[in-house]
Amino acid sequence: MITKNKIFEAYQLNNIILKNRIVMAPMTRSRAANKGKVATAELQGEYYKQRATAGLIITEGSQVSEEAVGYVNTPGIHTEEQVEGWKKVVDKVHKSGGRIFIQLWHVGRMSHPDFHNGELPLAPSALNPNAQSYTPDGFKDTVTPKEMTVEDIKRTVQDFKKAGENAMKAGFDGIEIHSSNGYLFHQFFNGTSNVRTDEYGGSIENRARFFFETLDALKEVVPEEKIGARFNPSLDGMFGITMDEDTIPTFEYIIKRLNDYNLAYIHLSEPFTDVSEVKYAVKEIARHFRPLYDGTLMINTGFTYETGNDVIVKGQADLVAYGKPFISNPDLVDRFMYSVPLAEWDNDTFYTPGKEGYTDYPKQELQVKL
Ligand SMILES: Cc1cc2nc3c(=O)[nH]c(=O)nc-3n(C[C@H](O)[C@H](O)[C@H](O)COP(=O)(O)O)c2cc1C
C-alpha cells in the first residue's frame, strides 16, 4: 500500500521548491582524504547524488579556513581547488534533481594543536572543553585553547564571508551556519565556555554578537533567503557544553531576533541525550521554539517516518532532517513512501576513508503493489 502523507508534500523554501520535506542532515564523513581537503565528484559527488531524492541535502560540516579544522579529512570551502571540487559535487546533485546547501564550520576549541602545526586552537575563552579531538593519529584529549582577540574574531567573520562567497561560486542552493553542537558559535553562546568581559561576553546579547556579525557579513554575499542556521539548545554533557540558567534564554533571544531576517530556515535539534534530569534543559525543542519563530523551522534527531510526519502535521516543524538513516538508506524517501524496512548503519565506517560504508549502501528494489 502506498502511504502518502504531509512529509511528502512539496515545500516552498523561499526561492526554491523542495520536492518533499525530508532533509538529509549534515554529517561529517571524513572522506576528503587528499592533500587539498577537496570534495570530489567520485566520492562526495556520488554519495550526495545517490541521496538526491531528499527534498534538501545539507552537506557535512566544511571548514571555512585552516584555523577552523578539527577533524581528520573534512573538506574545506576556502581554496580555489576546493571550490572547483564542490562545483562538480553540486552539479551531480542538480542533474539528479536534488537541492543542496553547504554547512559552514569552525570547530573552535574542539580542535587540537596537531591540526595547527602545534599552535593552540581558538575559542572565546581559554577554557579546556575536557573532551576528545579526532586527530590524524586518533582520539586525543583537547587542550586549553587560545582566547580569541577581537582581531581574531573579525578575521573569522571574514573567513565565513569568504566561504559564503565561495559557496555561491560553487553553485550551492544555500548555506547553513554551523552554530550548533558545541562548536565555535555555540562556545560563544554558552556561559560555561565564554567568560569574556568585552563586548563578546557577559550579557546574552554580547554572547550572540559574533554570530550576528557573521550573519550580517554573510548577507552581503549570500542572499538572506539562502542562509540557514543550526542550533542545539539542550545540548548538555557533550562536546564540552554544560547548560546553565542563561542557556535557554540565550537561544530564545537568538531565535526571536532571527525573525528580523528572511532566512531560508532555522535548523534545531531535539536533545542528543536524555535531559530529563538536566535542570535547565528544554525537553521538547520543536514544541518550545515553534511559537517563537515565524519562518521555516527544520527539526532533527531521532525521528522515524511516523514521528517526522507527525511533527509536521502538528505544526511544530516544516521540515524534518534525518541523519543516520540517510547513511545506510540512500533511497530513504522511497523507503518511507513504500514502507520498506530501513537498512542498519555501520558505525565503524562513519569516518573511514573511501567508498566502503559510504557509497556502497544499496537501494532497495521496490516491488510495489498498487
Ligand atoms: C557520522 C555523523 C556525523 C555528523 N556530522 C555532523 C556535522 O558535520 N554537522 C552537524 O551539524 N551535525 C553532524 N552530525 C549530527 C547529525 O546532523 C544529526 O544531528 C544526528 O545524527 C541526529 O540525527 P539522527 O537521529 O537523524 O541521526 C553528525 C552525525 C553523525 C552520525
Task: Please tag this protein with its features.
binds flavin mononucleotide; TIM Barrel; 370 residues; alpha/beta; eight-stranded parallel β-barrel
Largest beta sheet, briefly?
8 strands, parallel, barrel
Judged by helices, strands and strand pairing, the structural class is alpha/beta
CATH architecture: Alpha-Beta Barrel
Series of H and E elements: EEEHEHEEEEEHEHHEHEHEHEHH
Number of helices: 10
Spell out the CATH superfamily. Aldolase class I
- State Rg: 19 Å
Report the principal-axis shape.
globular
Number of strands: 14
Give the CATH class: Alpha Beta
Q: What this model shows, in words?
A:
This protein is an alpha/beta fold and 370 residues long. The chain has one domain (6-349): Aldolase class I (TIM Barrel, Alpha-Beta Barrel), CATH 3.20.20.70. It has ten helices and 14 strands. The protein has helices at 41-50, 80-95, 150-170, 184-189, 204-219, 247-257, 285-289, 305-313, 324-328, 332-337, and strands at 11-13, 16-18, 22-24, 56-63, 100-105, 122-123, 132-135, 138-141, 146-147, 174-178, 227-231, 265-269, 297-300, 319-322. The strands form four sheets. The protein has an eight-stranded parallel beta barrel, surrounded by four helices. It has a two-stranded antiparallel ribbon with strand order 1-2. Strands 6-9 form a two-stranded parallel sheet. Strand 11 (227-231), helix 6 and strand 12 form a beta-alpha-beta unit. Helix 1 (41-50) packs parallel to helix 2 (80-95) and helix 2 packs across helix 3. It is globular and about 60 Å long. The termini are close together. The mean pLDDT is 96. The protein binds flavin mononucleotide. Residues 25-28, 60-61, 103, 178, 180-181, 230, 269, 300-303, 322-325, 350 line the site of flavin mononucleotide.
